[in-house]
């Protein structure tokens, strides 16, 4: 089965700096990679995703990169703000309807004002 | 768009009673719904996958007779925790997948905090 590893487990950055979270996956058949943001006591919120037919995707301050050969993908947050503080989860999936998501262990991001 | 609701948001029940949690996709039809359990400071643990009108598929180690899942329509799935015990106390989260038009996303509900006393 798929195994997703996520690093670091905790990350603290100064407001305005960039944050990078990295994930690796093991199953080369995985082709859909979403990122979720979870605030305390709430459900995860989809913030960006990427499919294996592209190498990078951006949405304002958030970007995701994918290296299929190395089986790793990363979340990049630029110009961080205190409201970016949350737990971020990466996931991998084969992308078919109803296919299971395999989640990373999460990264707790703290943005220091 | 892509809003998923859960009800209740939190519930306290006595040991031995049953609790039902509802999950609704508000603005899309969900081919598949998923139920997760999350312990503090941990990742999401998939409990079961359900398709509308079909029996749910449970993950290994999840008791299907204890965690009853019904997916009655394309917008509603329910999780019933039967004969709840304190060890069932947890944060339960559902997600819904549109699954059509090449859409692979899962959209999560806000979660339900269950406390069994």
Between the first and last Cα atoms of chain B, what is the distance in angstroms? 37 Å
Total strand count of chain A, please? 11
Largest sheet properties of chain A: 6 strands, mixed
Helix count of chain A equals: 0
Shape of chain B: globular
Termini of chain A, distance in Å? 41 Å
**Largest interface by Cβ-Cβ < 8 Å:** A-B, 25 and 26 residues
Uncertain stretches of 5 or more adjacent residues of chain A? none
Overall structural class of chain B, as computed from helix and strand content, comes to mainly beta
What is the strand content of chain B? over 45%
Arithmetic mean pLDDT of chain A: 95
SSE ordering of chain B: EEEEEEEEEEE
The main sheet of chain B comes to: 7 strands, mixed
Strand content of chain A: over 45%
Low-confidence stretches of chain B: none
SSE succession of chain A: EEEEEEEEEEE
- Cα-atom radius of gyration of chain A: 13 Å
| Strand count of chain B | 11
Shape of chain A: globular
């Amino acid at each position: 089965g798929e195994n997703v590893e996520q690093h670091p487990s905790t990350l603290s950055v100064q407001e305005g700096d960039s944050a990078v979270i990295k994930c690796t996956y093991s199953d080369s058949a995985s082709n859909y990679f979403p990122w979720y943001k979870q605030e305390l006591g709430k459900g995860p919120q989809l913030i960006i995703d990427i499919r294996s037919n592209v190498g990078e995707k951006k949405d304002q301050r958030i970007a995701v990169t994918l290296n299929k050969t190395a089986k790793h993908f990363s979340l990049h947050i630029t110009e961080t703000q205190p409201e970016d503080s949350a737990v971020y989860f990466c996931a991998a999936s084969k992308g078919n309807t109803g296919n299971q998501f395999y989640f990373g262990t999460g990264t707790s991001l703290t943005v220091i004002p | 768009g892509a809003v998923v609701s859960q009800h209740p948001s939190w519930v306290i029940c006595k040991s031995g009673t049953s609790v039902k949690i509802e999950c609704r996709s508000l603005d899309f039809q969900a081919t598949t719904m998923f139920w997760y359990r999350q312990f503090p400071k941990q990742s999401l643990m998939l409990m079961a996958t359900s398709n509308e009108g079909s029996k749910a598929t449970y993950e290994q180690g999840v008791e299907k007779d204890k965690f009853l899942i019904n997916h009655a329509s394309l917008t509603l799935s329910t999780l019933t925790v039967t004969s709840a015990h304190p060890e069932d106390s947890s944060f339960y989260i559902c997600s819904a997948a549109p699954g059509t038009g090449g859409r692979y996303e899962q959209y999560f509900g806000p979660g339900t905090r269950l406390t069994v006393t």
